[in-house]
Amino acid sequence: xxxxxxxxxxxxxxxxxxxxxxxxxxxxxxxxxxxxxxxxxxxxxxxxxxxxxxxxxxxxxxxxxxxxxxxxxxxxxxxxxxxxxxxxxxxxxxxxxxxxxxxxxxxxxxxxxxxxxxxxxxxxxxxxxxxxxxxxxxxxxxxxxxxxxxxxxxxxxxxxxxxxxxxxxxxxxxxxxxxxxxxxxxxxxxxxxxxxxxxxxxxxxxxxxxxxxxxxxxxxxxxxxxxxxxxxxxxxxxxxxxxxxxxxxxxxxxxxxxxxxxxxxxxxxxxxxxxxxxxxxxxxxxxxxxxxxxxxxxxxxxxxxxxxxxxxxxxxxxxxxxxxxxxxxxxxxxxxxxxxxxxxxxxxxxxxxxxxxxxxxxxxxxxxxxxxxxxxxxxxxxxxxxxxxxxxxxxxxxxxxxxxxxxxxxxxxxxxxxxxxxxxxxxxxxxxxxxxxxxx
Length: 440
Hints:
- The protein is an alpha+beta fold.
- The chain has four helices and 30 strands.
- Strands 5, 6, 9, 10, 11, 22, 23, 24, 26 and 27 form a ten-stranded antiparallel sheet that branches. Strands 12, 18, 19, 20 and 21 form a five-stranded mixed sheet that branches.
- The model has no long low-confidence stretch (mean pLDDT 90).
């Protein structure tokens, strides 16, 4: 190797170790950056030419950065429900703007999940990237085209109300009650017969309004009770008094006090179908179907007939009044659920988890995000917990993968290597000076 070759080798050592110092410095600077993936300097030999065995050609060294994108950082708990992390493989899909259905070439991918709502209700992380997701339909279903993603916008949610569809009844009807053999359906509503037991429940109509329904029971024979469902509101809402009671029927009991059948169903059933005939012109409401559940056949888990006073133990009425949005939560499947102050929850979006055949081939972008490249392969948008995609962890953030102690060790090693490279240049320079002095 010539002296000039030694000089070039020393210079390449300075350049490579300078680049390594920059990589280490970047790691240390991002030790607290959410979702940051540490990089490492990889050194490779440079030869001036190919040589035969036993000969030597001067060369040098070069350094390149290798970011360990697939390395999982520790998950740390957070106070915010919209702080998100991916537990496992995959990335959140984001864009620089809040455009709906962006072109796939504009998508970026990140593990930095510190999302908060902006002034318009869009979820955006600290780098200004907007979180993308699938908009769910009214039943919580996903779109057929899984490439149709859009920015998560919670500002468009105003409020919701839910109509009653099910009533569950837990009550006891006294077995000692004397039967009224002259009872005819509708007598309680007409006032000609007094109910042996009755209670009024509040149900919710198709617009979320509270409406009173009275459940009245009359014992008509041994182990047989008749029921009337009476609307106690403004009867013009149901088209007039002639439409009351809105439902009637019969409940029979077994000798052990459990329900035997409701309305003579075949096979025996413990439920009754009720239809409230709301008058559209008078009330603005549509016809409402409700299932009344008296319990499981031959099981004392609903309506019973025991030798004890008639009493209502509990009732369950679904539905809710109108309520405004009060918060949001995200489950492990990435479903964004809006919370309303009336207790209703509604799934509105689902977060896709972006997977790549080779995540190490992604190209880094500003703001701790990545861009798809030919080396990474095309993106596949998967549902969380399926097809190898990780789970979504809410109220969590992924910590930086930087090991500070390891970086300080690398910092010292790089400094020593840089000093050694300067010694190569100094020594080669002194030898050149000796060569020049020979001529003198």
